[in-house]
Amino acid sequence: MKRITTIFSLIMVVALTSVSCKDKASNKIVADNVESAVSRDEADKLVPVMTFEKTEHDFGTIQRGTPQETVFTFTNTGNAPLIITNAKSSCGCTVPNPPKDPIAPGETGELLVKFNGSGQNQVTKTITVSANTAKGSEIVRIKAFVQAPGAVPAGPVK
Prior knowledge:
The protein is an alpha+beta fold. It is about 20% helix and about 40% strand. It has a four-stranded antiparallel beta sheet, with no helix packed on it. A four-stranded mixed beta sheet has the order 2-8-7-4, with no helix packed on it.
């Protein structure tokens, strides 16, 4: 009895499979969907690209509490307007100030970064810029060697 049930089940599976696969895949394509996919893919090619002149700035040796600032210059090398939605640093001692207006393709912009000079010894801070680029965010860094006021520069002793 088990053998008959197994054989009958296999025949049913083969029959159902052969009946359900008779439709051609090319008959299922909807022309409107193809047109919308083509236009969507063309729009996806229009992406801004944020290219920085430098991605890291070294302030060198500074005295603790001495405010510093630098400008990261970038160019939109893509083919769509660049919109910066947010810029945040890895700590509260560093304040980024991105441009508010969109940057057209081929145009340049400036990201002003202010550092209050806090910390001790070698300090590195990261600024994350969120924008409508393909990656969604770009990263720049600042670093400095922070000395206590009145400290003697490190080096060989004579």
